[in-house]
Amino acid sequence: MIRVLIVDDDPLVRSGLTMILGGSPNLAVVAQAADGSAGLDAVAEHRPDVVLIDIRMPVMDGIEATKALVELDDPPKVIVLTTFDADDYVLRALAAGASGFLLKDTAPEAIVEAIHKVADGEPMLSPSVTNTLIQQVTTQHAPERSNAALERLSRLTEREHEVALAVGRGLSNAEIAQELFLSVPTVKAHIGRLFTKLDVENRVQIALCVHDAGLS
To answer: Are 105 and 163 found together in one domain?
Structure first.
């Protein structure tokens, strides 16, 4: 059973998500909170596996709450929710340590799937969001970004380079494992090393690096 906490200042959103997730046999909404500060208190009390959190909230927004959550000794996975796929806060939220990013109009079954994947350690992002982010952050200083990206990728082994390119194409861990004839745990280990060698926090930033280098 995956324990879920919902943090959103809109009570209708909280109720709607609770109903959606309540219909899944493997998910349990253990608590709700109306802002990031209350969300931190709820995490301490209920110890959820996954937190669904809005970006824009009073008292403490989703970014600050995410930063605090990932610093816990046994942090929950965090999926950030928003109504805008081009939200300026998205990269900041991902850099803060969020494991997923979804639009609030995402289909119910896709939200359930995202929670399962994130709980299993596989980050989940709406493809349209990933594409928008890449377009937004690569429109300026292209030569400088390209040179820096190529230098970072040069630190990788051949296999790590292959995994990075696959992440840049949006493949999941299972898809990368199948394509490169690796086990999923081995893929996860490679991606962990990519985080360190490329000095990134998440898969989107790996994809950005690959894109900046002109390899996607």
So the answer is: no
